[in-house]
Amino acid sequence: MSKGTSIDALTRIGQDIVESIMAGRFPVFDIPDRRTGNIIFDTDEQEYVIGPTSVRRDSSNIRHVKSFAQLVWVASFAKELLKNNRTSSLRDLYYSSEAFDIEFADQAESDRIVGDLECLTGLPREEFGIFPEERSSIFGRVTMQYTVKGYEGKTVDLTISPDGLPIGPALMTAEPLDCKAELILAVESGGMFSRLIETRAWERFNAVLVQLGGQPPRATRRLIRRLHKTLDLPVYIFTDGDPWGMHIARVIMSGSANSAHIRELTVPTAKWMGVTADDIVSYSLPSEPMTNADLKRLDELKNDVRYNSSEWLHHINAFKDIRMKAEQQAFSRYGIDYVVDTYLADKLP
Q1: How many CB atoms neighbour CB 93 within 10 A?
Q2: DSSP-derived secondary structure letter, 79
Q3: What is the CATH code of the structural domain delimited by 137-347?
Q4: Would you tell me which of 137, 140, 297, 330 could form a disulfide with 164, CB atoms 3.0–4.6 Å apart?
């Protein structure tokens, strides 16, 4: 998506407001409804989508005036970012509002208004230069070309730093030029990411390594999808062996209800390779008992439409049977390189 397209979308919001006022009407916004009742799981696409219902923000309604004004300000803030070639974190946007006497109760409220802007324009916040705090990294034999102003045409080799490169706005929008990798291996923890770089697992398995940092931000999911689509790289996901790790993988595959209004975030063909409950048993991994919260989460997943296949139900039931969980690092009981020499060698194609 070009910057001009994003600016045009924001400009139209202002034009619609002015035209309404000039015609003697109170401006209104009709925004796709993001409430649970209007979020539908598309079984063909294997992801959540927004249904047909909209909600109206009417500036003539005293109850809507505050959220209407907040949305107009966020749109204005986003346009200024684009015009000045700047980016902002969601946190920075929240604090910036104070300079304009725009009152948000907390950052959660300002984040919701950013989501409203996405729904109103049909564009993700990243197209407006608004990002969460980065906490993911990438490493592998891929050369990317930057597209951000001031760096257009410059390239970067994703093996340039032994710590990996942070997945920020510039890298998320860069274009892949050359690739010697054959797959993407997304791992949950920073410790495992570092271990795979140190042991040159990326070289052994011809893998692009992505550190997810827990549940990955949308910029990371978008970059994984683009590399998957552009370079035709299969995606494998390696997380802790618990319900939370499973869900990290499933969100990469099928998205989340919170992002149902945003397209091009998912990789339905991605594979969760573990740590599964079966792995905990077959590898005799050090583990600990599941908490009540873990067991409750398994019940929630069992009732989640994203987990209704026989494969996922097997994983859930296996965890419920053993009532134990294990971290990725548990393989170190057999030696510091065991996870690469044995586990990944067994799991990856």
Answers
A1: 25
A2: H
A3: 3.40.1360.10
A4: 137
